[in-house]
Amino acid sequence: MTSSPRPDARPKLEGTAVYGVDLEAPGMLWGALVPSPVAHGRLRSVDLAPARALEGVVAVGAAELAHLLPGSTGDPDRPVFPTSTLVYRSQPVAAVAAPTRELARQAAHAVRVDVEPLPVVSDLEEVFPEWPGSSSEGSPHVAAHVRAREGDVEAVFRTAGTVVREIYRTSSVHQVAVEPHACLAEVTEGRWRVRTSTQTPFGVRDDVATLLGVPEESVVVEGTWVGGGFGGKGAALLEPYALLLAKASGRPVKLSLGYREEFLLGRTTLPSVVRMETAVTGGRIVGRRVRLLLDVGTSLPGRDFATGFSIGFLLGPYRTPVFEVEGYAVRTNKPPFGPHRAPFAPQCAFVLESHLDHVAREAGLDPLAFRAAHLWKEGDTTPLGQRVGPFGLSSAFEKARATAARWRAEAGPDTGVGVAVGFWSTGTGAGGEARLRLSPTGLAVVQGEREIGSGSVLAGVASVAARATGLPREWVEVTYEDTSRAPFDSGVFGSRTTGVLGRAVEEAARSLLEELGHRLGGSGPVRLAVESGEVVVERGSVRRSVRELLSDAERTAGGLVANGRHYGKSGTIDERKVEAGTFYPYTDFTGAAHVAEVRVDRATGTVRVTRFGAFHDVGAVIDAATAVAQVEGGVVMGLGTALTEEALWSDDGRLLNPSLLDYRIPTIGEVPPIEVTFLEGFPGAGPFGAKGLGEPPMIPVAAAVALGVRDATGAHVTELPLSSERVARALKLL
Amino acid sequence: MTEAPGSLRVNGRTVPLENVPTSERLLDTLRWRLGLKGTKEGCRSGDCGACTVLVDGVSMLSCLTLTHEAEGSSLTTIEGISDDPLGRAVQAAFERAGALQCGYCTPGFVVALVGLLRERGTSASVEELLSDLGGNLCRCTGYVAIARAVELVRTEAP
Question: ipTM of the assembly?
Fold first, then answer.
């Protein structure tokens, strides 16, 4: 496939693109955070005096907030600085700024934090060694509880031909964007201004306003180039501290994390324990019971979406007539759970696919045929009563099966092939707006998102604008504006950007073309084209240059402006099935089937993935080159989750491997050839029927690798990642 | 603690060094004294490769190199990599292969590959080149397009 060059290639290849880490301002100070020395404790005092004794150091803690933010209470549920209890190690208890980075670090060390340690809760299974019962409802360890059911679960399990019960465990994984979090804050004339590396400029604006308790319109967020996000840069993290330091010092303040801090403060996927029970009679699933304990660390109020959302991925995408699902979000003394590319879905797919494969084997059935027979198709109903929309997963699965059969026929010794599916909902309800400005020399898309690397803004949104108007993409320029000037958009997350912001662009294009049609006179749709180096409006054989159709005022203002907005609808679920908590409906049905060929070293348990096939229902491909690149990158990130990535927590809540040496992500030598195939014709909620593609490539990978290991060796591994140690244990080598 | 004024030779230009502490890392000198921020700061511990520069033509991690160690050497950063045809060929191959996404690791990869090709020549096998790029981490591309760029540059480099 040929790649059209990315518009951002040159600045990135020449080193001129400015990221958060690169920000600088005249007279700026460097900030540093003072971390909690314990994972749980009662804060006796924070003494900033030793830091302030260093020349040029400014320090702020809880005691300074009243003076810095007069009249503000901030958000009582999420205080910027804790005043009584510390709940995770590295939790910021104060912040300092100094003329040099080194001095800021020294000043942070100099702050005396006096703490009375309290018992640390680190391990989920220590909190709930037994499945929590109704007595745990009021437990301080339960951040959220969800339960739903349909049918007489007990009866079908009692009478089923085969019942399989298993327990799975998954690891804590980190986003590992190569660029650490960084921002530069300035406070002038009552404006809280921050430039930052973020996936959600408007989200950061709202967070800052809430956390500091200042009016939203007084906060201005300007995004920089983002050196990788993957969910980790989707909410305010450093910005409130940098702004408080800027306010206190009257100087611009830069706050930039070292990589160790990046691991320690990172809000990401935490461990889980899942119990799966399935009842089969006559080759059909007659009942399912799913129970999830998800570690949510120091849960953030309002951000415990994971349990109610993810639990659906432990049931579907399979037809399940009778079921009971129950999930607990469990508080531990770790940093808050946060989104990491398809939050917790790769772990769910690993558990579900491994389990159903095992169930089929136990019932004496062909595992692939068993799963194929239950896969959702359009018109099916999800367990929670939502109608399944256009969905190509079953077709993707058939293609994956055919590839797997071919690879198996060619497989050498100790080599196996795994096939797994994953599903996801993209184009979430979170809305967005965009502005188009048409001039004789081209079309500008004015919007509020920075490109985070996936291409969803600079290639995706630009391609939508081109396709919606008829202009070649080279004539479309995506321009970025800060939150005080750009139309609102929810952020680059949830595989939504090309889909939702794209729909807003499509809407704006419609209104632009309509207006141009009026001006051209006559009736019928018009398109844009290029003639003699200028943009023209055409209807059939009638053509007029845009120059002639603009008023003087429009020419002076830079062009004809049209606005578009899209606030999509999610489906609905049948609330009668919900007994506790919040479950979430899907917006569209996006799926992928993956095939992994793996070779297992029978002496060491080391797994190597030797080739990979990815079949994706994308609705419609918007930009071929970036679409393929998304799948390649997502698959390899998934290989990390599958094989090596595991943040290890000690009993006292310490992260044991906060470095890229000890937390191993895939390197260039470990990447197999990856074949990418797109299935079109199952339209989603995005422009031209597109579905999102940022997250789905990550989802089935670990499951496909695990099933490949099982195919190669018979080893049934029920924990992630499939480290050589775990595989060796399953092979009884240890 | 500072040393007597010295100088660095960076991208063909001699720049004076004044009041540079002996403990200062080359990465910080390049970025914050010389404003050459194309050299990226990732882990600062030698694990990610984002800060790779050429020191007398050999790729080195500027986060693990003290500035004073580099005195008297000739440095090339991403800002100077296009001064020679091999650098331009590597950049062009990355662009054609779509071998970048967020772009944060990109300068490190480009510089490291130029260094490798200088050291080993374009006759080095792709496997050998990829194996030697193992110290550069990328989280976006899955390396697939980067490997394509390596293949391209091997066949097209001057």
Answer: 0.97
Q: Note the pLDDT tens digit of each residue in A123-144.
A: 999 889 888 877 777 788 999 9
Domain span(s) for CATH 3.90.1170.50 in chain A: 20-119+181-256
Do the beta carbons of residue A611 and residue A418 sit within 8 Å? no
Beta carbons of B98 and A625 less than 8 Å apart: yes
* Minimal C-alpha gap between A9 and chain B (Å): 6
Using one digit for the tens of pLDDT, what is the confidence trace for A423-467?
A: 999 876 689 999 999 999 999 999 999 999 999 999 999 999 999
CA distance to partner chain A, nearest, from residue B71 (Å): 23
Which residues lie closer than 8 Å to A330 by C-beta, 6 or more apart?
A124, A127, A128, A141, A142, A143, A293, A294, A295, A296
Q: Residue A543 has what DSSP assignment?
A: E
Indicate the pTM of the whole model. Answer: 0.97
What residue ranges do the domains of chain B occupy?
Answer: 6-80, 81-156
**What CATH number does domain A432-566 carry, 1.10.287.3610, 3.90.550.10, 3.30.365.10, 2.60.120.200?**
3.30.365.10
Structural fold of domain A272-427+574-730: Aldehyde Oxidoreductase; domain 4 (3.30.365)
Of chain A residues 133-152, which have a CB less than 8 A from chain B? Answer: none
Which residues on chain A are in Cβ contact (under 8 Å) with B95? 5-6, 9-10, 13
Q: Is-contact B145 A632, C-beta < 8 A?
A: yes
Residues from chain A that touch B136, judged by Cβ atoms under 8 A, are 668
Residue B77: closest C-alpha in chain A: A15
What's the CATH fold of domain A20-119+181-256?
Answer: Aldehyde Oxidoreductase; domain 3 (3.90.1170)
Q: How confident is the model at residue A4 (pLDDT cuts 50, 70, 90)?
A: low
Q: Check A660 against B31: CB less than 8 A apart.
A: no
- CATH 3.30.365.10, chain A: domain bounds: 272-427+574-730, 432-566
Domain B6-80: give its CATH superfamily. Answer: Beta-grasp domain (3.10.20.30)
CA distance A177 to chain B (A): 6
Residue with tokens 């007539």: A321
Tokens 């194929």 label which residue? Answer: A372
A258 contacts chain B (CB < 8 A): yes
Higher pLDDT, A683 or A6: A683
> A661 and B45 in contact by Cβ < 8 A?
yes
Q: Kindly list the distances between the CA atom of residue A685 and the CA atoms of A153, A430, A621, A628, in Å, as whole numbers in the listed order.
A: 35, 13, 13, 20
| Top CATH class, B81-156 | mainly alpha
Q: Where are the beta strands (DSSP E) in B6-152?
A: 6-10, 13-17, 52-55, 58-61, 74-76
Give A598-641 pLDDT, tens digit per residue: 999 999 999 999 999 999 999 999 999 999 999 999 999 999 99
| Paired residues of A32 in beta bridges | A96
